Fold each of these.
Amino acid sequence: SNIPFARIMSTIEHRNLRFVILDCPTSNTLPIYLEELKLRGVTDVVRLCEPTYEKGVLQAAGIQVHDWPFKDGGVPPSSILHAFLSLCDERFNGLTHPPKDYKEGTGPVIAVHCVAGLGRAPVLVTAALVEAGMAPLDAVEFVRRRRRGALNTIQLNWIDSYK
């Protein structure tokens, strides 16, 4: 089965911040997703919905899985927001300032998914971009250009008043 990954996985890169937003794999599609995640250099998968696959499959491939579910269509509770931002800070070797010797397009990649990859996943990635110094509405535009249909009104308002 050939999945058009260009449509399913959206790459969002800004300086040393490297994300992939995707929809939710199932047990059946996980092996195909895993190949693609490995090709893209993904080190971590952040799962924001209820589990639909066995995370041991990813862990066996050296990919860490972080389960931080929150309400569909909602905004992240501060505990999840902070956990996500500290993961970003750690993996990307600095969220607000890229490392001095950073080379564009290198380093770890964090994959983030909810069910459709249109609400919860983009809202966290957008927050990370704002943390990295992007203006909230620029960050929204940046993500939406790469992930059509991302973010609902509640999420937009939250991002807008984020900083």
Amino acid sequence: MPDTITATKGDVPDNANEHCPGPESESAGKADGCAGCPNQEICASQAAGPDPDLPIIAERLSCVKHKILVLSGKGGVGKSTFTSQLAFALASDENTEVGVVDVDVCGPSIPKIMGCEREEVHPTGHGWSPVFVQDNLGVMSIAFMLPDEESAVIWRGPKKNGMIKQFLRDVDWSSTAEGGVLDYLLFDTPPGTSDEHLSVVQLLRESGITGAVIVTTPQEVALQDVRKEIDFCRKAQVPIIGVVENMSGFVCPGCKGESRIFYPTTGGAQKMCKDLGIPLLGSIPLDPSIGRACDFGSSFLDTCPESPAAKAYLDIIANIKRIIESK
């Protein structure tokens, strides 16, 4: 699929020419109708026809009950933090098997946040084995394959897309999950609506996506990019579970009082969700303990269970479970 668009009816790109043959056609990028199309060069350079790895990926992920994308149009809103704490919370039930795929190829922070940096991926007879934070919580990230923590990943789209495909095709979750079933597979994505997002959506086409949780902060500069992410989900036909408003206030560690840091000048996530008809899963206040937990790779819900932010996390997780189970 071209990396500047998303597919709509018949897999024809949203911004394609009128007589587009489709990105999976043998004449993609070469037909007369492709002349002048902004996607022509990309279509012409990719292999024609359906990706032969899609059925393999679908079979590999057939053991996964729920596949959840954590998205945000804006960087720095706490998306990776939310993914990690969601994973820790889900895995607090020892009967629930959880996996996290770090799709942020150029900025992989999940291993640091989840306390498993400097680990290595080990091949098995069934594929790559994820790195386990605890018995029922596994992680896969490119960070495990880098020579050191400061090594930059300087890749163009095709190499990033190839790595994401390997994460989906080659990682074996079934042999490590209890009973061969993984209850939740969370995908921590980079900001925006580009290569990584398109790759994940396309590669999960046959196995299915449960939905997306979109993270924002209250101020308009974040919300304007989050609206683009919502538009991406709708065009790519990714169900939206709901929106999480992060950093919605500051909780004083002394008096436990809350004050606004990022003021919602346009009504914040609550008004945006009302306008767009999307569930607001909840709001998480700022708490310095969250940052400390991430730096030390621990579960914030375990270290500060009485914090208002911990209660907000638990309410949001309950809402996510309720919405998923109702589908």
Amino acid sequence: MPLLKEPHPPPQAPRPWILPSLFAAFNVMLLVLFSGLFFAFPCRWLAQNGEWAFPIITGLLFVLTFFSLISLNFSDPGILHRGSKEQGPMMVHVVWVNHRAFRLQWCQQCCFYRPPRTYHCPWCNICVEDFDHHCMWVNNCIGHRNFRFFMLLVLSLCLYLGTILVTCLIFLLRTSHLPFSTDKVVAVVVAVPAAGFLVPLFLLLLIQAVSVSAAERSHEGKCRYLQEYNPFDRGCASNWYLAICAPLGPKYMAEAVWLQRVVERDWVSMQNLHFPTFPASHSTPVLPRPGSGCQPQPLALYKAGKGLPGSGEAVFFQEVGPELWGGGLGRAPTP
């Protein structure tokens, strides 16, 4: 059995977490503070003068925004739990995803081979399935299990801030004939930051909508496999369904990563395979395509259609067909 030792950088020390946590808590308090000022002054004046539609609509949007913010703060982004420290990067693991070969990268901190689109966050010191980015505003990673909460937060913030801005402008127009008062000062103080945050949040919402439609990830940038075609792209409608509506499944609560647990007997042993040695910087080695005569069997530990619970892999590999020789380590293209 060939043993291929991979060069890997020394493990990085985890970054401090106190300041990012305080910053995330400050953002929650900032939302509550400005909302309290808005409801206590300009919104109260409108309600006292019979304009009940404004406090009702903004109140519902505030509840939705606050719920999505708290949910995202304490949500599980899709953490893959650490493997055994006795295990090491001794072999080259390759999986096929939609006719494209992916070489699994060894995570020195978590001690297992990362599936495609799994990334080790240096801020949280964890490996996150289907990693998109680390959000400093909530001090949490955005991945497979909480991406829908992130989209809900951005959408609700855009609606809430837009409603606050419109309400404050209407209040200033309705009270233009009245003398200068505290209500007007608070309306201006609330409207200015609302307008300042609304523009970048709306641009972020558009960028994320385009990324979801194309099944892309923020941290990937211009990856090599995206230059030709994206193997994780299943069409706009399917991409949105997988990102927003698809069942998440159970969490990964095992102490050792279940991605590397042998459950079948009919996998080809590594001693019968002939893989070329790839440098550590190559993440997508060029391997013979299906039907080309020499058909390497990737070292996979789950059969196609019998993937990890909750990963969505089973649906994806069943649709791809038998050309994927056991791509069970790869996860379905869930944004």
